[in-house]
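Narrative of activities, Objective 1.

The group set out to show that a structural description can be obtained from nothing but a protein's sequence at a throughput compatible with the screening campaign. Below is one input-output pair from the validation batch, recorded exactly as produced.
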Amino acid sequence: MRTPPRHRLLGTALHAVTGLVVTALVVTALVGGGGVAAAGTPAYAPVDQPGPALTVPAADLAKSLECTANVRNATREPVLLTPATTVDSDQNFGFNYEPLLRKLGIPYCTSNAPADRANMGDMQTRAQYVTYGIRTMHELAGRRIAVLGHSQGGMIMRWSLRFWPDTRDLVDDVIGMAGTNHGSAIVPALCVPNCAAALWQQRANSEFVQALNSGQETFPGISYTEIYSRTDEFVQPNLDDHGTSSLHGGGGAVTNVAVQDVCPLDVSEHLLIGTMDPVTSALALDALAHPGPADPSRIARSTCAQLLMPGVDPVRGPLTFATLTAQVAAQLTVAAPRVASEPALACYVTASCVK
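Output recorded for this entry:
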């Protein structure tokens, strides 16, 4: 069988990704970065407990959201784009999903924290911006919205849904691309001896991850499409639908799908899955176009022969991706502020909080 063009170009990545994963897992084991919950885990707030007031200054919240004009009184479901750790919305989505959504006439907004555009700080603060974005978009559009995100951005909306229950009636679709829903076994190796706050919180055994998934993982009335890759070198383990990206239980309608379930030869790694992978974009658009989550059986087999997702310029796109890769490496190694431990859970997360 003739190998599709995108896999001729990317096929060698599989061996490199496998090596990275194995190496990182060995280091993780050596530094004790397992996934076992720590003793004395707190009792978490009930899932129906009203959310706290936002403490981020109103001016910063207002600056964080940028929307297309057609979000106001939207005639179709608008999309809130939430970027990954190490990048902002422009870097993550400016050369792919933004032009694609504009071409299709789909309204959208981007969310960026003014003081932490690379999303390396405390994700509890980041979630306040996302909560503001969900509420404001719903008010502008006059209808329920979708939240589409990559990596941290594929998970962070779930903190809003868990701890600000009013947002559940405002969101129709959650679409995660390599979301760190249960953390990653790889991240602890990056935190020796220290790392950025958001990395501490994305360890598989972090207090943040345990709180995020407390009570229930999904909520009735919301459709969840969780897209992952078995060759993701960063969000691991993700070998099947019981991996870190996948969701189970709680009442929401859920599709957990690997890009390899649609195209077995797809070797998209962590950055590709949220930026240029055509299988991922096809699943995301399917979720937006139909009631409920994406259905992999509706994805055309011709997608497997595509090199790039629609919306990506075939010349400038790969060049932008190369720049993005350098940006990610710089943030992970030298650029981002590093802290000695995971930020403490906010009071509202626990059942014992006195307001």
